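Write out this protein's structure.
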Amino acid sequence: MSPRNHLIDLSRALSVVVVVTFHCLLYQIVVVDGRPQVVPWAPQPHAAWWTASWFVMIIPLFFIAGGFAHALVIDRMRREGSSYSHYLAARARRLVGPLLLFVGFATVLSTAGAWLYSADVSVGLSVQFAQLLWFVAIYLVIVGVAPLMVTLHDRFGIWPLLVLTVLAAAVDAWSFAAGDPGLRYWNLLTVWPMCHQLGIAYHRGWFRRGPVWIPVAVVIAAVVAIPVLVFGLGYPASSIGLGDIPIANVLPPTMAMIVLACGQTAALGLLERAGVARTLPPRVERGLGLANALAVTTYLWHIPCITIAGGLLFGLSRLAPGLTGAALSQAAVVLVTWLLIVALIPLIGRLEYALIPPLVRTPGREAVGAYLLLTAGTALVWLHGTVIHPSEPWSSAGLLLLGGGMTWLAHAMRAPAPATTRTPTPPPID
């Protein structure tokens, strides 16, 4: 039997499917005076949209699955006696290929546009393109502290979860009191680590073992608590920004994400108790493994795929005006986007794999420094874009740190050059 938890793998794969499909549905293409325009599909979201957004909000599941996986990896590495620097290098190297290809592609296009056309326009577009890196930046931070968080859970149990929850609630209260939703960005350091901590707890048996009434009660409590937060305490109604309502609960995150994560983790426990995905046919298991291996790749490149799909469908509508309605429909965008993903993502994944540096030797402390550069660089690129230009020092600095971190990490993992020994010259033969 495979040692992997198929339910966790399935939840991660389904999360990617939901994210991509939902993003396809956020906007639609309309033709005005022969020109395509992208407009919100739901400019004034109604209660149905708000309600639906909570059912498709699966970002907490990413972090829950990550916590489960990290607990598994950290336990194994501790048994093997691996060092912290080896752990960091092993986890970071998996992101080098995806980051190098994605950021490199964006940097070439945006930098060329900045020097040849307009720096302001290129920066704006590159910042939008790099927005997806928020997840990678936060994930790198969480990976770095994951061994500590596993230790804290094993030693103190529920207390790390409670501390993170209280801190998140305090940030929310501060934000509401000041009338500044931007203050909730501090919750990037509390909400998502809390979700990750739930994954560690789940790996240790929470909700999977013990009285069944506990996960049932948690699911019910989550279902009740979210409407209380929205209608009773003034939290945003939508889990994600929709149309003219950009202020939501996911970015920046609020306590509502913690409530949702608790409900999702408990629901996973109930599904596992019911035997869902306990065993899978070999073909399904292999397909699920491939989908999870390409999860980061799919996440990073799905917006370009949506953009390409929209362009192709608009072109089709121009060539065949009678098909305009069908070609520009949301269903067509979803279908073509997924066809592009199925066709392109495995190819991109092969390129990424070729760029991953080999872990030939156990790295030393330099791996820690490289990891810090990699994390800082990713965060700056997320916030400031991918333009190398004198007018954009923070963007340029982020790219420099990111590239430096990748290079240093590869050097830390490289095998030392073999020492050259000089063969003594034999004495001449008389």
